[in-house]
Task: structure prediction
Amino acid sequence: MTTAAERLHLLYEVNRRLTGFTDLDELLRYATQRTRELFEAEGCALLLVDRGREEFYFPIASQSASSHASEQRLSEIRFPADRGIAGWVLANDQAALVEDTSKDPRFYSGVDQQTQTATRAVLCAPLRSPSGNIGVVEVVNPSASAVTRDDLEFLEALATDIALAHEKARLYERLRGEVVGLRQASGIAGYGLAAVGLLLSLGTIFGHLAWALPVRELLTRPGLLTGVAAILVGLALVGVAHGWLVRKTSHP
Result:
């Protein structure tokens, strides 16, 4: 049986990694593996909701060596998001502790049938986010000594950290997409503006020469000044698009 200190250490470690993580899968694998070990369970898995299809799927799972439900096998399984104890936890926003699944009408045996396993006990907590519950974290077949209400509170705290990690990763991906789009737009606008500036400058130069005016007066022509300014602004936008200015600022 694990101690409270070990569980607090796991929460601390997840929070510490969360502040500067760059790989969401790595963080979640660590959290699920350590949770399974602390509960001395056969498995610990995340079940996320595919809102487009209203189905649960398993992006991350940690299984003991004796379990038939490998991570690869679980990753191929989907089932309706309103089924089972996981579906009840998701809908009711409430953690659940089931010590004997054979006596609980909420239990859904479809996953067991596909993985050829036997789920006897379950601890399940919702993954809460500001936009709503995104799934659940589930501990399967923990040791009998680990099935307590205190353990359920610990799992809820861990689920909060996991949901926060997902929200952070989703925000990062969205911001990265916006930056890529902005750079592409800057590149297109920059090349276009530079081309217009070049044409305007060349047109001013040829027009000036056609009138046989002194070359020194060329620098005062509005068309040339406008064209040069357009070229410079265009090149600056191209620089932003390629990250030249960003790199220069970040690495002086």
